[in-house]
Amino acid sequence: MTLKVVWFVSSGMKPWEKRLLLDLAEALVPRVGSLKIFSPDVAGWEGGFPLLSWRDRDFLSRAKTLLVEGRLWHFWGQAPPWARAVAFRAGLVHTQWRDLGPWRGLISTIVPCCCDGAGVRLSPFFRARSLWLGETTLRPSEGTPLQVLALPKGRPAPSWAESLAPSPVLLGGGLREEELLPLWRERGGVLLLPWVTPDLAWIAAQGALVGVPTLARPGAALDELLGSEGYVPVRGDDGESWKRATASFRDGPPPVAAAARRRLEDRYSMESAVDGLLGLYGRLVEVPS
Hints:
By secondary structure, the protein is of the alpha/beta class. It has two domains: about 5-125 and about 270-280, Rossmann fold; about 140-265, Rossmann fold. The chain is built from ten helices and twelve strands. The strands form two sheets. The protein has a seven-stranded parallel beta sheet. It has a five-stranded parallel beta sheet with strand order 9-8-10-11-12, covered by helices on one side. It is elongated, with a radius of gyration of 20 Å. It comes from Aminithiophilus ramosus.
């Protein structure tokens, strides 16, 4: 039995979110037999799984897709304006985790505390091999490990950041988001998270898989994903607390990245992620056994 599944991934996905979704898609295909992924924005998606541009399709092609393609659709991110046309004839699952819009279909999330307990919680998984083998157009570069400051959307950099030595580079500012993992693979580094959101915790997880430790304020998102021993907790909002934490790395980084990797491999396996997804789909349609 083949289940024809269509994913629609909204625009504005971050590189680390794209990597997570592509890994999940590649793991899902052998279990369902048929998966197509559409997105208005197909630039910057690494990997061998083909993405189909929704923006490049003409009106008739879009209409045919909505009327014929897929017994089950899965929206990732914000729902498109034509969501009801899909829900009228096919099973519909909707997963959001940031920049939330209206919900459509069966509600689900892939992070804690996103839909007020009303939806189904899916499990992410992180494939180390794809992070190490992912393609990049960047030239190999030499230099010291890259100390990166990542902030939630709309948050200004804390005043103490400029006083750190070495001075961190701001993700999305001095460092383009798509350059992060390739540079970490080449040079190593450290991730600084003054505020933790679920999607920033994914950066910490992917960083751990390439040997990059995280310094962060303690929080539920990181404790759940990496474990309390999978990152360096910084207990204090002042610059001195962060200076002491970063200074402790001068004699070599602590083994938190290795602890985080073990936890990710033990608790967030490909099998549990795919089984959870198929269990969700099974609420709406018959899925292959």
